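Interim report, section 4.2 (structural modelling).
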Amino acid sequence: MDRLPARMRAAYVTGLGPVEAVTVGELPVPAPGPTDVLVRVELAAVDPVDLLVRSGAYPTPTPFPFVLGRDLVGTVALAGPGAAGFAPGDRVWCNSLGHGGRQGACAEYAVVAAERLYHLPAAADPVASVALLHPAATAWLALFRHGGLRPTETVAVGGGAGNVGVALTRLASLAGARVLVTARPADAAWCRSAGAAEVVDYRDPDPAGRLRALAPGGVDLYADTSGHLDLPATVDLLADRGRVVLLAGGGQRPTLPVGPLYTHDRRILGFAISNAPAGELAGAAAALNRLLAARALPVRVHGVWPLERAGEAHRAVEEGVRGRIVLRVAEPGP
Ligand SMILES: NC(=O)c1ccc[n+]([C@@H]2O[C@H](COP(=O)([O-])OP(=O)(O)OC[C@H]3O[C@@H](n4cnc5c(N)ncnc54)[C@H](OP(=O)(O)O)[C@@H]3O)[C@@H](O)[C@H]2O)c1
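Predicted structure of the assembly:
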């Protein structure tokens, strides 16, 4: 390993604000603590939540200058004495930087606590992997940690063609569930290729009625990523003991259908991966690693852009780009 440089390129902010706040420039290379790993970053992804952190819409500790980004794929440069299991040169990934006081992934070097770092399987595709880390871990936790999905259940996914929606669909169908999704008709083939049994046009005048006709026995688990959920109609769709998992739609203030909820033992659950403790993230990571190695998860990568375009990438995600934007920070290597 060559001597570490003193400074590195990074995409960061010195205060919370609009996309214009994103600066790509030089910062000191951070020093890892005893249980940390210093990772030389190859690839970082841009997540919708990075925009919420950068703008201040999602309040979380952001020590300035604050490097943006949750997800990285890279190589271990240095491992602290208490970072068991990691050695220089190991190919690794992380998906929980850039919030909670932790500096982010969009830099040539990132400090990662060993408990938040995982080995990247040799058979995994690095670009697809970094693009999948956030949506697929979110989907895994939503289905299995929060939604309590069991094989043979019927799952409905609101926003089935999106990054998280398609991961929900693939993971639920691999688990043995029958999956119904809402999506625009142009995305029907994409959703079916991910494992959807049926695709309902979300612009249909009565999507809930369409779903009810497709699942007369009720939906066991409804996961919404669209942020446009008709909550009363969705609760009515549920089987007894059915669950709604809300992952999006922070601005919604729907009426709570109390009777249809408690008289059928139904539940409405909120879930944000930002709250997941390291142990739960590690559980999702173990499952993801098996799937990344098998290249079993579908993903749409909109583009692989240089780190210098980090601000432009934030703007594109803000404007609703379809698919994931990956930032190339450095070429693979020592
Ligand atoms: N809670 C968590 O832990 C967590 C984690 C990750 C992401 N999220 C949130 O989840 C949401 C989705 O993220 P993403 O990366 O998957 O975004 P995305 O790729 O843009 O997916 C959103 C999907 O929703 C669809 N949609 C829009 N309006 C709809 C409607 N009225 N009915 C049904 N579907 C509709 C979109 O379809 P079109 O393309 O046709 O518009 C798109 O396919 C975001 O709000 C993100 O912040 C939450």
